[in-house]
């Protein structure tokens, strides 16, 4: 299944893999458990916080 979430924190909670797109280019790709918070912040330009369990 493919799902587009604009909430980065939620994507990390529910996705197996994350693809990050910035300005039409692939900015990051990987398993959700392996993608670093700093990578997501770089691609999306926002602070990424850990979602509550």
Question: What labels describe this entry?
Answer:
about 55 residues; alpha+beta; globular; 2 helices; two-stranded antiparallel ribbon; about 30% helix
Structure summary:
This protein has one domain (1-53).
Task: Tell me about this structure.
- The protein is an alpha+beta fold and 53 residues long.
- It has one domain.
- 28% of the residues lie in helices and 25% in strands.
- The model has no long low-confidence stretch (mean pLDDT 85).
Rounded mean pLDDT is 85
Q: Gap between N and C termini, in Å? A: 23 Å
Strand order, biggest sheet?
Answer: 1-2
Number of strands: 2
Q: Which oligomeric form is depicted?
A: single chain
Strand portion:
15-25%
Radius of gyration, whole Å: 10 Å
Helical residues, percent: 25-40%
Query: Helices and strands, in N-to-C order?
Result: HEEH
Number of helices: 2
SSE inventory with pairings:
Blueprint: H1 8-14, E1 17-22, E2 25-31, H2 37-44
Antiparallel strand pairs: 1-2
